[in-house]
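Let's sit down with a protein and look at its sequence and fold side by side. We need material for that, and I hope you will provide a protein of your own picking. Once you have written the record down, we can walk along the chain together.

***
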Amino acid sequence: MSGRTFAEDLSARAKSHREHTALITPEGPHTYGELDSQATRLAETLFELGVRRGDRVAMVLPNGFSAAIAIYGVLRCGAAFSPVNPTIKRDRLAELLTDLDATSVICDADRRELVDQAAESAGKIPVIDELEGSEDADAADFEAPLEVDLAAVIYTSGSTGEPKGVTLTHRNMTFVADSIIEYLELGPADRILCLLPLSFNYGLYQLLMSIRVGATLVLEPGFAFAGRTIALLGDEKITGLPGVPTVFQTLLSLRGLSDHSFPDLRFITNAGAALPESAVAAIRETFPQASLFLMYGQTEATRIAYLRPELVDAKPTAVGEAIPGTEVWIEDDEGHELGPGETGELMVRGAHVMQGYWNDPEGSADRLRPGRWPWERVVRTNDLFRLDEDRHLHFVSRRDDVIKSRGEKVAPREIEEILCLAVGVREAAVVGIPDRLLGEAVVAHVSLDPGTQLDAGALRRLCAEKLEDYKVPRRIDVHSELPKNSNGKIDRRALVTEAETDAP
């Protein structure tokens, strides 16, 4: 594993492969030399504004070359970056900038007015919106960070909806990048297609890992047109496709997909949420030459577990084992380690564990627990798992998603798997809403493939055939699309609010 920081990665690649393509965006290709020069130019601008090692710089940028420049420019001047989803609202951005005590904000011209207003509210923070220029710059006077210095503050809403700033050092981030690079066997010949926002940890690491190994990243603004994604897979000779369930379910619903072949596609990764077993089988059938990695992670430790591709067909509901160089185990509520077949909270140990939440000592103390050594902390994930007989991990539920109905605990994923067995069901999400008699009532939401017609009664009968009575949804709502958050995950909070509003 390399001991270089991410900024040093770019410098090294620019020296050895200056004309090699680092990124391809809708505007065109960009070389390692171009990215290196523009990052240095931005670093000089930040330095002139007084940004120094350890300062925090917020980024409000859509996917594109400017976002890559911003990340590496901030790192090059020794500061820490904080990527913000570009759809953020003004008041929320002002709150975040205040919490972060940001030294500067980087945005694009389209968001300049909104960012100016938020930056003014947060204390007249300088704003930069010109990242690209023709002038080369030579790095000078930058104080190189240590591995233990802060590299990023990544805000995650978690289960409460209130943003928490996950603090990560250079060592936290390069360690987990190297671990993922190891098991994916990433190298300079890879061409990765990124449809995920760089403000999302999963998307961010596609950029960081590609630059680290000298690969090429095809960076899209988002996932809006499935047909374009299919075209890019072939035209750009994509070797790696990272995605979330929404991406794969949409691709699999395309008519005529089986008529295409993707000989260059070497691997597919899924994270962010669990894939239904039916979707796993469909991916394996549609992309038979590609290794499928089922993964689990959260911002507090980035990537935590992965299932080896050779086990996917036999264990399509598993997320496997701890990533290289780390340890995981399952505990009950009293802190006792559990064995196979028992459900408890997943605990994580390794150099990727966050330092804590920014400006939130209480939240940090809740999620970080004493480790094996006096100086060490492990993270409790707040997610429920079980081990199978081979000690492979199986996700059960987020602790906050567990529904308590009729005195019984109901894991939404079990019901969602059943609903996805119905032909034509693209996605399913199950939530609990307050109920005077039941405690919580089980409510299911599904979206259908185009042209499919299914009634809620048929879906409810399917659940009744497969599940215990208390797990059968009281109501099933059929949608054309399920609401998504900015990272492409199903927005369960929005579904709970809708279900409560529509409750009789």
About this structure: The chain is about 30% helix and 25% strand.
